[in-house]
Design goal:
Blueprint (H helix, E strand, L loop, with lengths): L1 E5 L10 E6 L6 E2 L4 E6 L4 E5 L4 E6 L6 E2 L4 E6 L18 H8 L3 H10 L17 H9 L25 H16 L2 E9 L1 H18 L6 H14 L6 E3 L2 E3 L6 E3 L1 E3 L2 E3 L2 E2 L7 H17 L12 E5 L18 E5 L3 E7 L2 E15 L5 H16 L2 H5 L2
Helix pairs in contact: 2-3, 6-7, 6-8
Length: about 400
């Protein structure tokens, strides 16, 4: 029987996708649900697997080809007999342990290992029969000793250059950021937060919190809750511009910016106001892992009425975050640093964080932006207010 391998149905917001790399060759036998290729969109990378086992008879869309929903990517003959691809020949200098590991390395894991420059010989496979899985390679790539990103390193004394095309995701990021600059009257206001009350509360309950809910109590849940309370008071910050209309949203879909090797992605916690602290922390951990693995769904990346980005995890002390269209505001968190402050006439050291709100001045006045940021500051400096919603 001839089976067609088709492009999965793409979301309405995604016009097309690009074939990245075929992991199987024509004439090779493929197993049911075996990873055949990846499709890169401007939001996520989709993994295409074999619908049935058989011989890959024809590849209809080559690497780099642009495809659309339900386009035929390849053809599989389920009745034909093919050859299972053997591991590539290796040089004598390759360690024997690496040779043994590669024979138990699936195509998806092999592709990631090559991209991430991971020594598969050092990996203990968790799959059936000691097979090295995709997850095994990803874990190894995240280890401190692994090279997790290809870097351009100029040779000393050489005037070298390297030209590489943007990925679909990087091109989309560039397009959206430029759109924000060109269409919005963007302005940024700043404030600073004394993080001592949140840190004290966190230190007091973090062990009990983790034991009870199985997740660490971080800062992002506090900031998310504080922003939601401020958005309730200033709904225009949660609004967006549509032509000559202002669209006010009666819900709080909060995007959490996550940096990955492929670029910045913003998964969205829909109806974030309904989440508890524990649910928020759990969802953020889930988003972080999915973002690193390229497993975020289109639904998880769609929508959003407000965004929070944390440059502090990379050491940023102060920045002006750029809007995420069509949203009208974004909050930037930064590094917590001990600084001298005056309390009751005395100079004391406190863990301080600068926070920034970039906003679209077309619909958000400066007064509203400043008051919104003050509301966030007050909620964080008195966390009990978030529980009482006052």
């Amino acid at each position: 029987m001839i089976i067609e391998v088709k492009v999965p149905a793409l979301a309405e917001s995604i016009a097309d996708a690009t074939v990245v790399t075929w992991l199987k060759k024509v004439g090779e036998y493929v197993r049911r649900e075996e990873h055949l290729t990846d499709l890169e969109t401007d939001k996520v990378t989709l993994e295409v697997t074999a619908p049935e086992g058989g011989v890959l008879k024809e590849i209809k869309q080559a690497n780099g080809q642009t495809v659309h929903s339900n386009d035929v990517l390849a053809v599989i003959d389920t009745d034909a007999k093919g050859v299972v691809a053997a591991p590539k020949a290796t040089t004598a200098s390759k360690p024997a342990v690496a040779l043994r590991a590669e024979t138990k390395l699936g195509p998806a894991a092999r592709k990631i290992a090559r991209e991430q420059n991971v020594d598969v010989g050092a990996i203990s496979g968790s799959g059936r029969g000691g097979r090295v899985t995709k997850e095994d390679v990803l874990k190894a790539a995240e280890a401190p000793s692994a090279t997790t990103q290809a870097e351009f390193t100029p040779a000393p004394g050489a005037r070298t250059e390297e030209r590489v095309p943007m990925t679909r995701l990087r091109a989309r990021i560039a397009e959206r950021l430029k759109l924000a600059q060109n269409t919005a009257a963007m302005l940024t206001t700043f404030n600073e937060v004394n993080m001592q009350p949140v840190m004290t509360l966190r230190d007091k309950y973090k062990e009990r919190f983790q034991k009870e809910f199985g997740v660490k109590l971080g800062f992002m849940s506090f900031f998310t809750k504080a922003c939601i309370e401020a958005l309730r008071k200033f709904p225009v910050v949660n609004a967006s511009v549509d032509g000559h209309d202002i669209v006010y949203h009666g819900y709080f879909d909060v995007g959490i910016a996550v940096g990955t090797e492929r670029g910045l992605v913003v998964p969205v916690i829909h109806d974030a106001d309904r989440y508890t602290f524990a649910q928020l922390e759990t969802k953020m951990v889930e988003f972080g892992q999915k973002a690193r693995d390229g497993k975020l769904s289109l639904e998880e990346l769609s929508g959003g009425t407000f965004t929070i980005t944390n440059g502090g995890v990379f050491g940023s002390l102060l920045s002006t975050p750029i809007l995420n269209p069509p949203q009208s505001a974004i909050l930037g968190m930064h590094k917590i640093q001990d600084r001298p402050v005056v309390e009751n006439g005395q100079i004391v050291a406190r863990p301080m964080m600068y926070i920034a709100l970039s906003y679209d001045h077309r619909i958000i006045d400066g007064q509203e932006a400043v008051q919104f940021l003050v509301a966030v500051k007050e909620a964080l400096e008195d966390p009990a207010r978030m529980l009482l919603q006052i």
